[in-house]
Amino acid sequence: MATATAGPGFDLPSHVGCPSGEGVDPPFRNALNLPQYRCNASFFGDIKSPEHPLAVWTGYFVIVGLGISFGIFTVLLVALEQYLFSTVMTSEYFNTAGRSVKTGLSASVIVSQWTWSATLLQSSNVAYLYGVSGPFWYAAGASCQVILFGMLAVLVKLRAPTSHTFLEIIQARWGRVAHTVFLLFALTTSIIVTSMLQLGGSSVVNALTGVNLDVASALIPIGVILYTLAGGLRATFVASYFNTAIIMLFLVTFSFIVFTSHSDIGSPDRMWELLTRASRDVPVANNQNGSYLTFWSRDGVFFGLINLVGNFSTVFIDQSYWQSAIAATPSASWKGFLLGGLCWFAIPFTLATSLGLSSVALSLPITVTEAARGLVPPAAAGHFLGSVGSAAVLVMTFLAVTSSGASEQIAVSSIIAYDVYRTHINPRCSGPQVIFVSRVVILTFGLLMGGLGIALNHLNISLDYLYRLMGVLIGSAVFPVAFSITWGRASGLGAISGALGGLVLGLCSWLGYAATFDGGINLKNTGNTDVMLAGNLMSILSSGIICTLVSFVRPDDCDWSSTQSIPLIEDDPNAFLPFERAEALERAFKRVAGFGVVLTAIIVVLWPLLALPAGVFSRSYFAFYAILSIVWGVVAASVMIILPVWESRHSILVVLTLGMYARRLEAVEAAKVSYHESDAGSGAADEEGGYEVGYADGFAAARAAAAANGGGGVSGDEQLPPDLPIGVGAAGPYAMEDHRPLEPPEPSYRTSF
To answer: What membrane topology is given (predicted)?
Structure first.
């Protein structure tokens, strides 16, 4: 043991005069001998005498007070929106948000619902376990699915524009048996996702505040139920924007504190030095030279593959993502997923590169058990900012749980309302009946969320275990569900055979491999990385092979007429596409397919291949890597916070001015209409087909209209709002490029957020 020196540094002993650390893994992990952790066998204390950085009332304040307050705020905002924009809460609006969500909000919602508690917690755990490759593989293995889902989002608008769930598409194509099979997969997916949300959320609340695990699990869903019951999908989307904005702000704050300002690290150079020391003290098994600073990590790559398979399942089989595609406008459907996937990448990548790696660099006394429960971020944040940091992670985790939980509540309610109630119980149901059933399911499933968390906590199933297992259980449904909207020759027999056959083969591979280890089939062996990888790969790959082969032998001949005629319950004009819009989406599909494949190849293949020649990262290479993570986080945060507000700026002004801004814009709209209607007498077309005169006459009409509405008039130099388009061209004010006239678009200030 080295001799102690005067201050913290590399030559200090870990623990001088401490009792034996036997049974602790790793024993007394405090290589820098930070005085606050002297003789600590764990960061949060043992089970019998836990140590909590925050008072217990803080936990109750967040999960009850903040949850209910946020729920009331969201309900009031949605109610004000409905009042000002005269929105009627039909069943279509409740479950699809009017199919009018714009790109920025769509992307923000996707980021929010894909940010689970595991995103914040498990990503730092893999940094703690595997080093720099862990955050990358978590981010890469879970972002490409969202990017690729953009292709399905476009096809939903083209081939099933009136659908409410992806199960309706399966029913229309393959019939009742296939519908029932994939209904079970969809519900299983929502249950698994909800279970992980509850496990991560309750663990953090318990570790930081001391609130009982069971109580935390039961109380977390309360606020979510409130606003989801009242406002449906629209309320969930509004809440998701605020959740995403807050999480992004905390994310950027933590990365700057770790890499630029805190005295314990404060720079990429210092982080590199500390990680180099940690690699000597506690080397990583199966990493090059035992280093935390390399992509040559066998277990890191295996985790990346598990992550890749499992997250294809929880995107493609999760109704909440299909619901986001259905709720978006046609052009926003694919843009939202591309943008959302790229911005979401920053959350696990930036957060875990800062908090996850710093927990290793500073040799914080976090045990493997604590890390598996997702407690690396709260430990690191607590070290850097004390109780403020702990509170920030508590709020981030709570927002992630509530946002994703709300999405799952709406997803399950839509499945039960449309695919159980309307399909099997009351085919002639009315809109109010669908809303009633949806609300009953939201309440029931919300309460069930708490029960799931309590059960899993008592079964000692960790967040890490469940996260790795999900691909084994639901991965076999990925290819059949994707084929339901992309491949016209895919057959119902092939889809059912692939889904069930892949599930059986995946379970057999998982359990069979685990049985070969000492002790046979137990929690430890079934959670082994190699065992989980075998089960995950067998489940998804065998399913794809079976489904494809059976479909070639017994193909269907689908012209998509059945999916295009899925019935609505109530009128929704946004569900139908004009011919010109459909043509544009056909072109968009080709673009998004190209973008998706190229971006996925860059992120999943090219990036790690370029990092491998670096071996163990040099000081300068790691500095570049750390700066990249910060820049990505800042750009993503800026886009997610600013873009939704900018796109809906006029609607927001209408709400903030309680409708006065709308009356002013209506006057401007009247000016434009008058201007275009009077072009024959007031203006002459130029060579381009535009108009040189008549603008003053239009604004005269605007001033008259404003006076009639009791407004203050419109000044001659006032500019038209940029998102209220002024049409040009000889074919009319709303002509397409090929001069086929379309209906005038609804002014943006009359559409909600």
So the answer is: Multi-pass membrane protein
Burial class (CB in 10 A: 0-12, 13-18, 19+), 88: exposed
Whole-angstrom distance, CA of residue 448 vs CA of residue 437: 16
Please choose, from the candidates 470, 464, 463, the residue with its C-alpha nearest in 3D space to the C-alpha of residue 199. Answer: 463
Question: DSSP character for 716?
Answer: T
pLDDT of residue 24 exceeding 70, the answer is no
Contact assessment for residue 539 and residue 472, using Cβ atoms and an 8 Å cutoff: yes
The continuous run of DSSP H or E covering 276 comes out as helix 268-281
What is the CB-side half-sphere exposure of residue 671 using CA atoms within 13 A?
A: 29
> For residue 666, how many other CB atoms are within 10 A of its CB?
18
Q: Would the pLDDT of 139 be above 70?
A: yes
For residues 171 and 183, give the distance between their C-alpha atoms in angstroms, rounded to a whole number. Answer: 10
**Region 383-410 average pLDDT:** 90
Structure tokens at 119: 């995103």
Residues 387, 370: Cα–Cα separation, whole Å: 19
d(CA 324, CA 463): 26
Distance CA 347, CA 108 (A): 13
Distance CA 132, CA 134 (A): 6
DSSP state of 574: G
Of 407, 335, 328, which Cα lies nearest the Cα of 157? 328
Domains of the chain, residue spans: 56-83+100-462+575-647, 659-750
Helix orientation angle between 330-344 and 579-600, rounded to the nearest 10 degrees = 20
Rounded to two decimals, what is the model's pTM? 0.81
Give the DSSP letter string of 551-570: HHHS-----SHHHHTPPPSS
Bridge partners of 741, per DSSP, are: 735
For residue 704, which phi and psi values (nearest 5 degrees)? Answer: -65, -40
Round the CA-based radius of gyration of the chain to a whole number and report it.
28
Dihedral of CA atoms 356, 357, 360, 362 in degrees, nearest 10, equals -100
| CATH code for the part of the protein at 56-83+100-462+575-647 | 1.20.1730
d(CA 391, CA 394): 5
Per-residue tokens: 488: 């016209």
Check the CA dihedral 471-477-482-485 and report its sign.
Answer: negative
Amino acid at 320: S
CA distance 750 to 753: 10
**379 and 44 Cβ atoms separated by less than 8 Å:** yes
Which residue(s) pair with 328 in the sheet?
Answer: 101
CA distance 229 to 560: 34
- Spatial CA neighbour of 76 closest among 236, 231, 281: 231
- Give tens-digit pLDDT for 494-511: 999 999 999 999 999 999
Closest CA to 178 of 165, 187, 169: 169
Residue spans of beta strands (DSSP E) within 384-499:
none
Q: Determine phi and psi for 203, rounding to 5 degrees.
A: -65, -45
Of the listed ranges 37-41, 416-420, 643-647, the one predicted with least confidence: 37-41
Kindly state the tokens that stand for 91. Answer: 């069943």
The CB density around residue 585, as the number of other CB atoms within 10 Å, is: 21
User: pLDDT tens digits, residue range 616-653?
Assistant: 999 999 999 999 999 999 999 999 999 988 887 777 77
Strand partners of residue 297: 287
Query: Which residue carries 């009128």 as its tokens?
Result: 571
Q: Does position 31 have pLDDT exceeding 50, yes or no?
A: yes
Which residues in 252-344 belong to E strands, given as ranges?
none
50: helix, strand or coil? strand
Which of 219, 207, 211 lies closest to 451 in space, CA to CA? 219
Residues 13, 2: contact at Cβ < 8 Å? yes
In DSSP terms, which residues pair with 294 in a beta bridge? 616
Query: How is residue 605 written in tokens?
Result: 């293949």
Q: Is the dihedral of CA 20, 23, 24, 26 positive or negative?
A: positive
Could you tell me which residues are beta bridge partners of residue 691?
A: 685
